[in-house]
Fold these 2 entries.
Entry 1:
Amino acid sequence: MSSISTAKDLAKLIDHTLLRADATALEIEKLCEEARLHGFFSVCVNGSHVARTCALLEESEVKVCTVVGFPLGASDCDVKRYETEVAIDNGASEIDVVINIGRLKDGDDKFVLRELRDVVEAADERPVKIIIETALLSNDDKIRACHLIADSGAKFVKTSTGFGPQGATVEDVRLLREAVGASFGVKASGGIRDTATALAMVAAGASRLGTSASVAIVQGLPAATGPASY
């Protein structure tokens, strides 16, 4: 990853996230306002908020990301596919889907790969990020998941939902980056609440960050180098 020196640089890597069950319409509006102001790459919301979020961000460069099979990943394959189709119909630009963790741990690679390919197909060429919930997996499982994800047509492997026992770690980001290679996407998510942690994730190989503390994180860096500001 290239070095990050300004808030604008870092903002371009951030999915500004609000996935709480009790998120209100006013909070979604605030999320979108913050994303516009700071130039975050996207906002990430639950499926029921996608249409509203797209309307709020109309004519902005901020993309709309949503989650599928969230947060457990254990819903039926057809449900995940349908969720994805509805999200795309409602305007979502990116899909973050939770892998079937139990099937992965069982070694049922054929099932996992088929499910992931179904979601990628349903996303209709929009980028798909696969959440593997690293805290629940052995290193061997993580590496195998990366290989399946690369084969599925997805664009990213993502560490965590933020609702599991632990979020992203530098060690896991480094492991995932080594497993998928230099050109594949790695999204670090869960527990990233300050600038130093965010920068450490990028240094370890993260090409995208998912966080609800985005504003505080970018405020920990200068707005710009030189006379320009953002």
Entry 2:
Amino acid sequence: MALPVFFWTNHTTKNQVHYGIIGYPLAHSFSPAYFRKKFASLHLAATYDAYPLPHISDLPALLAAQPQLVGLNVTLPHKEAILPYLHSVDRSAAVIGAVNCISIKEGKITGYNTDAIGFEQSLIPLLTAHHTQALILGTGGSSRAVAYVLQQLGIPYTKVSGSNAEGAIAYSDVTPALLDAHKLIVNTTPMGMYPLIDNAPALPYNSLGSQHLLYDLIYNPEETRFLVHGKANGATTKNGFEMLQLQAEASWDIWCAV
């Protein structure tokens, strides 16, 4: 598929800069409030808005209608689907195969992955000698960033899928013995995310112990059922809020640098 080229004039000035987030749905997105607070603290005349896009094919129309945009965050379900709409991709994002941040300059769109940055920086302080193998729950765009980080850290992983994804095992294959061998478990699925907070990945949670680390990329609610089950069995738990903050700051660094 040939890369599309969007012809529009970027009307931003030093005192008028616009950012946003695309995905669907976006009603409970953290990003608009986070960046508006940041802009206010820095006394910047900048805006950050949510742009719900049911289909990634709506992106060209959005960019044509909002020529003032210079940067966008990208969330579910578009982190992989956006790739054909980019003119270039950062090296790490290309390896990951998913993008959650784009910069827009002179009609050209460049993609980056700051999920990997946020995940790595928030995970490393929690790792111990026990965390030699990992399970990644899910096979979407976020799971790709997690897999990339674990590979960089030298931690072998196995992906778990509820949809018979290629290269992944099924939840029914996650036995107590498998959990015992994989002391790091990362949930990259939306299972347990608000408003469906009673959902949790189907795991034999009673087989968890104090050497396990359960990391959930979800941050709303603060403690998902996945984490509740882990904590009840002695595991260390971590939600995705710090990762979210770190990836947002990494996005800001990218937008300021380009």
